[in-house]
Amino acid sequence: MEHFFEILGMSGIIVLGITLIVLGFVGSIMPAIPGPPIALVSIFLVHFGLDGGKYSWYTLSILILLTIVIALADYFVPILGTKKFGGTKHGVRGSTIGLILGVVITFFTSGFGFLLLLLGPFLGAFIGEKYAKNNNTIALRSAIGSLIGFLAGTLGKIIVVVLILIAFLYKVFAIIF
Q1: Which three-class secondary structure state does DSSP give residue 22?
Q2: What are phi and psi of 121, to 5 degrees?
Q3: Residue 52 DSSP one-character state
Q4: pTM of the full predicted structure?
Q5: Contact indicator for 102, 117 with CB cutoff of 8 Å
Q6: Euclidean distance between CA atoms 28 and 80, whole angstroms
Q7: Which one-letter DSSP state was computed for residue 133?
Q8: Of 82, 105, 106, 77, which is closest to residue 92 (Cα–Cα)?
Q9: How many domains does the chain have?
Q10: How many angstroms separate the most distant Cα atoms in the chain?
Q11: Which tens digits make up the pLDDT trace of 64-118?
């Protein structure tokens, strides 16, 4: 492993770390990419690859714990949002299908990507509830809950990646300056 870090050098480790953090932000918005875990790798690059880049075990533990918690929460928050607003299993399934379709369609279109990511779970939950023969009020509440859950999960992931970015920059600047 040391040979890998020697080949990269300090500049390479920093550039790779920044790249991983950028991918972390992208993954916080795109559900198919695990944003916070990817960004967390940048912390390990600095910790193990740079002289003077050691983080305290407390800092590492907190960042690892936050990453695990948000990864788990990201799976459950949209489901809980849908259920909290009165959605049924059909709304939850529809939301999941809508999210997957939103991601797939985003990869094949340009310009509408982010809009499709927002509309996918919303429309999926609405259609799922209508498929179950629920009225428009239940379907709309389920769709709103799904959207709020998706946005809450996305915001949580972005916050964790921002914390990782701060820890990364703090240590890198301490080494450089």
Answers
A1: helix
A2: -65, -40
A3: T
A4: 0.86
A5: yes
A6: 19
A7: T
A8: 82
A9: 1
A10: 64
A11: 999 999 998 887 887 788 888 888 889 888 988 888 888 788 777 765 667 777 7
